[in-house]
Design a protein that fits this description.
This protein has 175 residues and is mainly alpha-helical. Strands 1-2 form a two-stranded antiparallel sheet. It contains 5 helices and 2 strands. Helix content is 40%, strand content 5%.
Length: 175
């Protein structure tokens, strides 16, 4: 290294030394805020064979939310006033989140697009649960849980009925 590069390195070290405590604090704060809520995550990375919310579960999620988007209006405050048109996995399906009602949220198209396939941070899940206490029906479970119960798992593995055997025609030339 030449002399100028050494001087720049020395100056940057001199500047960083008194500020190290808040730089490390900022890195730790960002890591903690972005951390997912591990106790609610799926136990296995295997994907659920069902990809989309259809029929009864879809209608139940939309009805539970009162037809409104469940995303926050501004960071942690308020609730989006748009009509919910889509049902989305809270823990994304691509990250092992099952297609069950406890892992579903009603979202408008804009919030669903902006969420993409990100695993939400712990504060998002806790905010959603706190918000749901205000609009879910009395006695409904507001807890977000990205795990399948044994009944749900058994329902997905219903044995298929055997396909009827096809009759094979012989290929003869005497027609």
């Amino acid at each position: 290294m030449d002399a100028i590069a050494w001087q720049v390195l020395e100056l940057s070290i001199e500047w960083l030394a008194p500020h190290t405590w808040w730089i490390i604090g900022a890195i730790v704060a960002v890591a903690v805020l972005r951390m997912p809520l591990l106790t609610r995550a799926p136990l296995t990375p295997r994907r659920d064979p069902w990809r989309t919310f259809r029929f009864g579960p879809r209608a139940a999620v939309l009805e539970r939310a009162g037809g409104r988007c469940e995303a926050a209006l501004f960071f942690l405050v308020g609730r989006c006033g748009a009509r919910a048109t889509q049902v989305d996995h809270i823990i994304p399906w691509s990250r092992g989140g099952p297609t069950v009602e406890r892992n579903a949220q009603a979202l408008c198209a804009a919030h669903n697009r902006s969420k993409a396939a990100r695993v939400p941070a712990w504060w998002y899940i806790l905010r959603l649960e706190r918000s749901r206490r205000g609009y879910f029906p009395e006695g409904a479970d507001v807890r977000v849980l990205a795990r399948m119960s044994e009944e749900e798992r058994a329902a997905r593995h219903v044995p298929r009925a055997p396909e009827p055997r096809r009759r094979i025609r012989s290929r003869t030339t005497d027609r």
